[in-house]
């Protein structure tokens, strides 16, 4: 079964393996298989589920809500997000304005079939809306009971500090940050994690397996396997492309003996690795098949000895991305319509 960790400086416990349905539900995976994956997550002891209104343009929330019908709501932790365009993409269908936040939470709650979400996250930073307006809207949602806690995703260290200070002034707190983090992508370590620690915020990390690259199934000099994310033209191939070069793929193959030593698959090693960071509350994992969920949860509770953590660094060498500037570089400078 899956271990629990506290989320930030709060009393909320979440499963350290959290089920996420980005790039799967309503997109790559048919609804009945998506439901089977959610059931497999529940059977494995996962109680925390993460989605967003933008995933498959709201369909992913609907699929998740349908899959969780009949479950005791109080035994679940349901997370969603707001920022990216939804609906027809009108001028107010995106961003973190009061209008978009208030309308988006109502849509999300309807699709998820719940009166509240446990965590509502700013999916990106909105450069076009005053931060005070955004934080006031979040404060109102907390007071209305529509969101129990508030978090952010892919915010820089400075943005996190400013948001946390305003939240405190308004009588609530930011408790989470949801960045990309893996053995290959460590850009949060130098700035985002220290800023988060200062403010009682922990990480819910996405793509701990680097979109599948850290499974070792992509071999240098060979075409990607049919049906893999690297062949998915609906979005998966674009996201994984930064890792699809022979230097990275060759370095990843060096991790196989380390995984074997721990009696883990390479995917389990990747998930266990992010959980060694004590500022990480949860690793987000998705699935296109129910059996993948059962395999991923075996990473929960694994302790990687310090000497093997060093071996992992040595195996990957110079292919690891550490530049903290990548967080801002990969964030939208203006609202995307």
Automatic annotation (TrEMBL):
| NADP-dependent oxidoreductase domain span | 16-315
Organism for this UniProt entry: Myceligenerans pegani
The protein's matches in InterPro entries, at most eight in alphabetical order, are given as: AKR, K_chnl_volt-dep_bsu_KCNAB-rel, NAD(P)_OxRdtase_dom_sf, NADP_OxRdtase_dom
Keywords from the named record: NADP, Oxidoreductase
Regarding protein family, the annotation reads: Belongs to the shaker potassium channel beta subunit family.
Report the protein name in the record.
Aldo/keto reductase family protein
Q: What is the lineage of its organism?
A: Bacteria, Bacillati, Actinomycetota, Actinomycetes, Micrococcales
Checking CDD domains in the record gives: Aldo_ket_red_shaker-like (cd19074)
Indicate the secretion signal residues. none
Chain segments carrying region Disordered: 317-337
Basic and acidic residues composition bias: residue spans: 317-326
Q: Does the keyword Transferase apply?
A: no
- What are the Polar residues biased-composition ranges? 328-337
